[in-house]
Specification:
CATH architecture: Alpha-Beta Barrel
Number of domains: 1
CATH class: Alpha Beta
Radius of gyration: 18 Å
Strand content: 5-15%
Helix content: 25-40%
Distance between the termini: 28 Å
Structural class: alpha/beta
Strand order of the largest sheet: 6-5-4-3-2-1-9-8-7
Order of helices and strands: EHEHHEHHEHHEHEEEHEH
Shape: globular
Largest sheet: 9 strands, parallel
Number of strands: 9
Length: 287
């Protein structure tokens, strides 16, 4: 008899952690700001780094963030908007080289999925998406090779080493319903890229197709984008979805998947409380 495949791991966390509204609420009054990530690491198993979306970070920042959490903590890293919003996924090799040279690889074993969030105006173009996904290095070793081709902007501040060669995971968050095209889903599957399931209060489409061996969920708010908290019923519904993906019962192929869930409804401080609520509901799977 074939042994049952173990359930995937559910990691639940928040997108970013430097928010004034969390201070004196989620963060205890008087907690030093330099200890906020440490506090996040005591409550969650993962967090999204979103500063990397707006600008290239520095290796010393990645190394510091890594040092402030346990070895089991994982960072999802949001890919550069230069690649997604300015280049629009075209001619991305140099932009990707700079991104990987900026210090992402300094996270080592704590580097989780890399998220590429697309602008709403970015519609599905098979040639553009195929070229972009083909340019993404499948492993840290190949990412290092790419990073070595960084341009002069990274001279003197590039991180060009890895601890081991291991696979990389990528997730794509489109905001155009054209990505529901079955051809787009097959393309993502061929490249092992997860299609993000995003809850955006109806602003953008929600995709629930599983296109990789892991699932990635971003919860921006069910009623008001970035502002509303999740009700007990809404959290219970998401707990059912992510638990079924983790044990395989919610996947058409029946295979368990790791699931990464990040709350981005931070405008009024709901994100960390909702993340704790969901983690409680999914229980042992979110360990």
């Amino acid at each position: 008899m074939t042994a049952a495949r173990p359930n995937g791991r559910i990691r639940i966390g928040v997108s970013g952690w430097k928010y004034a509204s969390w201070r004196g609420d989620f963060y205890p009054k008087g907690l030093a700001q330099r200890r906020e990530l440490e506090y996040i690491g005591q409550h969650f198993s993962s967090a999204e780094l979103n500063g990397s979306f707006y600008s290239l970070q520095r290796p010393e920042s990645y190394r510091r963030w890594r040092s402030e959490v346990s070895e089991d903590f994982v960072f999802a890293v949001k890919g550069s908007r230069y690649v997604t919003h300015m280049l629009r996924l075209r001619d991305t090799e140099q932009g990707l080289a700079n991104f990987f040279a900026s210090g992402v690889l300094a996270l080592g074993a704590q580097l989780g999925p890399i998220l590429w969030q697309l602008p709403e105006r970015q519609t599905y173009d098979p040639d553009v998406l195929e070229a972009f996904l083909s340019n993404l290095p499948p492993s840290t070793g190949e990412a290092l090779d790419l990073a070595r081709r960084h341009d002069e902007r990274l001279d003197g501040r590039a991180w060009l080493q890895i601890e081991e060669d291991r696979p990389l995971r990528y997730a794509l968050e489109p905001r155009s319903d054209t990505f529901a095209d079955p051809e787009a889903l097959r393309l993502l599957q061929r490249h092992g890229t997860a299609l993000v399931a995003a809850d955006t209060a109806g602003r953008w489409p929600r995709f629930d197709a599983l296109t990789s061996d892991f699932a990635y969920v971003r919860l921006h708010g069910a009623q008001m984008l970035y502002h509303s908290g999740y009700t007990a019923a809404e959290l219970s519904e998401w707990a059912g979805v992510v638990s079924a993906w983790a044990d395989g019962s919610g996947a058409s192929d029946g295979l368990p998947r790791d699931v990464y869930v990040y709350f981005d409804n931070d405008a009024r401080g709901h994100a960390p409380h909702d993340a704790e609520g969901l983690a409680t509901l999914v229980g042992a799977l979110a360990r």
